Amino acid sequence: MRPVVCIVGRPNVGKSTLFNKIVGRRIAITEDRPGVTRDRIYAEAEWLNNYFILIDTGGIEPYSDDIILSQIKRQAEIAIDTADVILFVVDGLGGITSTDREIANILRKSGKEVLLVCNKIDTPKTPDEIYEFYELGFGEPIVVSAGQSLGLGDLLDEIIKKF
Ligand code: GDP
Ligand code: MG
Question: Which residues form the EngA-type G domain (predicted)?
Fold first, then answer.
């Protein structure tokens, strides 16, 4: 069985963009409007001859404000059930939100392997903003820009180390 890697995180942090970049094709739908993703999207991915299944757990669109948190929690629970490795994606420039904390709590309790991914760092120099994410308790954040394809090789190296 191929290892399963799930991407979780609140809407608009760049999960689907990251998914498409790793898979190398545009499968997941990315949009400026938060929460736009078809339900779970699966694809096969490969890095250095390591094959795995990647899942974008974006959620069902459209989110309404009142169901948003329960929906996100449900997605996190699905990821915990299915995943060997969880990519917990945050907006590296946006700071920690209460939703990030809720997701972190669920993931921490799961005991699964979690890699914290700070996305949207579009510059080569890592900004100080990312250090607050240590607080979430998943160790050193992995800094990437899915949009600009920065840091993805290092992220993939960390993913396959967990298999
Ligand atoms: P999702 O809701 O978490 O799946 O997020 P999407 O992948 O749909 O992206 C939400 C928005 O963030 C879109 O406008 C993307 O173009 C943008 N985005 C994604 N990754 C990056 C990035 O690395 N840098 C910047 N600046 N924007 C990004
Ligand atoms: Mg999405």
Answer: 3-163
Residue ID of nearest Cα to ligand 1 atom 24: 120
Q: ipTM of this predicted complex?
A: 0.99
pLDDT for residue 1: 87
**Whose alpha carbon is nearest atom 19 of ligand 1?**
14
Please give the full DSSP string across 129-156, using - where no structure is assigned: GGGGGGGGSSSSPEE-BTTTTBSHHHHH
Say if CB 65 and CB 48 are below 8 A apart. Answer: no
Question: In this structure, which ligand is nearest to the CA of 68?
Answer: 1
Domain count, the chain: 1
Phi (first) and psi of residue 61, to 5 degrees? -95, 160
Confidence bin at 29 (pLDDT 50/70/90): low
Q: Angle, nearest 10°, between helix axes 98-110 and 68-82?
A: 30
Average pLDDT over residues 38-51: 83
Q: Tell me the CATH number at 105.
A: 3.40.50.300
